Amino acid sequence: MQVRLEQLTKAFESRKKDSVIAVNKLDLTIESGKLIGLLGPSGCGKSTTLFMVAGIHDVTDGKIYFDDRDVTELSADKRGIGLVFQNYALYPHLSVWDNIAFPLLNSKDMKKRLKKQFAEQHSNSPNYKAYINKLVEDAAKLVEITAYLDRKPGELSGGQQQRVAIARAIVKSPSILLMDEPLSNLDARLRIQTRDEIKRIQQQTGITTIMVTHDQEEALAISDEVIVLKDGLLQQQGAPQDVYDNPANQFVAEFISRSQINMVHGKIATNKLYLGQEEWFPLPAPLMDQEVTIGLRYENIKHAMENIERSFTASVTAKARIGGISTVQVRLADGQQITLLNDHDESLRESERLNLVVKPQSILVFNQK
Ligand code: ADP
C-alpha cells in the first residue's frame, strides 16, 4: 500500500504558550512494498510522523492517504497497520503464543474479518480455533521463534522478544508496518542480526514498512529509501546510495556519512573550483562565481604516489586512532586543516608532506550558509 503525506504538520502546545512544531508541512510519497528508513537526529520529528501515520497522534494540519483513501481522521485500529516499538511492549504475563494471538482475539473488527476469511475458507484449517493457531504459527515461523511459543517474554533474550513483537505486528496481515527505533534496545551484535532479519521479513511479506531510526548506518544498510528529517522539515528522500552521493545540503552530507566529513572553504571563479586559494578543478557545468563550502569525506581522500594532475599537497599535523580506525590530520597550503583515513601508511611522520587526491565525483559543493 502506498503512503502519501500532504503538508502534514504537528504542533504540540507547550506550557509556555509558544508551541513546538514537531513536524512541519511534510510532503512525502512512500511507494507500496518499500522498506523506508525514517532518519534524523533526536527530536527532529521522526516518531511524531510515525505516530500520525499510525493514528496515535492527531494531525494539526495536512492529510494522510493510504493509496487513494484519506485516513487522516480514521482511528488507529481501523488503519490496518502493525506497530513495533523500541521496548517491545509485550504482555509479560502472557505466553509468546498469547502475545502474538492478542490482536486477533481482542478486537471486534479483527474477529469479524477473521470469521469472514475463515468462512470463505482460504485456509485448510478444520475449525476456527485451528485457523487462528495457524495464523499465529505462520507469523512465529516467519520470525523464527516457533520453539518459544510456550515461554513468557521474560524468558527470552531482547532479540527474541523483538521478534515476538514483530510477529504480533504482522499476524493480522497489516498493509503497513511501522517500527519506532526497533533495534535501539539491542546490543551491537544483535542489532545487526535483527536488522538483517527485518530486511528478510519485509522482503518475504512485501509489506510497506517505515522504520524510524537515528542510526544512519542502520538505515543505509537495509532501506530501499531513506527519508531525512531535521527540525520537523524534510531534507531529502532517496535511495541510500543516491543520498550519500548527492546530499541535498550540508546537514544531509554530514548526517549520511560512513566516516566523517571535512567542510572546508573554497570558491568558484570563472568556472573553476578552488580549494582555499588553490585552483583545483574545472567545473563540469558553469556556475556563478561565489564562495562555497566543499565537503570531503574522510574515506574519499587518498594518498597519491606522485604529484599528479589535480592532486594537492598537505603536511601532516597529527595522527589519531579510535577503535580500529586510524586517521591523519593534514594542513593545506592555505592553512585549513582536513582529516583523512590513514589506510595504509602507519609510518607517516609529523610535518611530512603528502600528495592527496580526491575523485571529482566525490567532491561535494555547497552554497555558503
Ligand atoms: P524524534 O522521534 O525524531 O526523536 P519526536 O518526534 O519524538 O522526535 O519529537 C519532535 C519534537 O516534538 C521534539 O521537540 C519533542 O520534544 C516534541 N514532542 C514530541 N512529543 C511531544 C509531546 N507529547 N508533547 C510536547 N512535545 C513533544
UniProtKB/TrEMBL annotation:
InterPro entries attached here?
AAA+_ATPase (IPR003593), ABC_transporter-like_ATP-bd (IPR003439), ABC_transporter-like_CS (IPR017871), ABC_transpr_MalK/UgpC-like (IPR047641), Mo/tungstate-bd_C_term_dom (IPR008995), NA-bd_OB-fold (IPR012340), P-loop_NTPase (IPR027417), Transp-assoc_OB_typ2 (IPR013611)
One GO term in the molecular function aspect is: ATP hydrolysis activity
Instruction: Please provide the record's keywords in A-Z order.
Output: ATP-binding, Nucleotide-binding, Sugar transport, Transport
Quote any Pfam family the record assigns: ABC_tran
* Keyword Glycoprotein included in the entry's annotation: no
Cellular component GO terms held in the UniProt record: ATP-binding cassette (ABC) transporter complex, substrate-binding subunit-containing
Q: Residue ranges of the ABC transporter domain?
A: 3-256
Task: Respond yes or no to whether keyword Nucleotide-binding is given for this record.
Answer: yes
The protein, known as: Multiple sugar transport system ATP-binding protein
What species is given as this protein's source?
Cohnella lupini
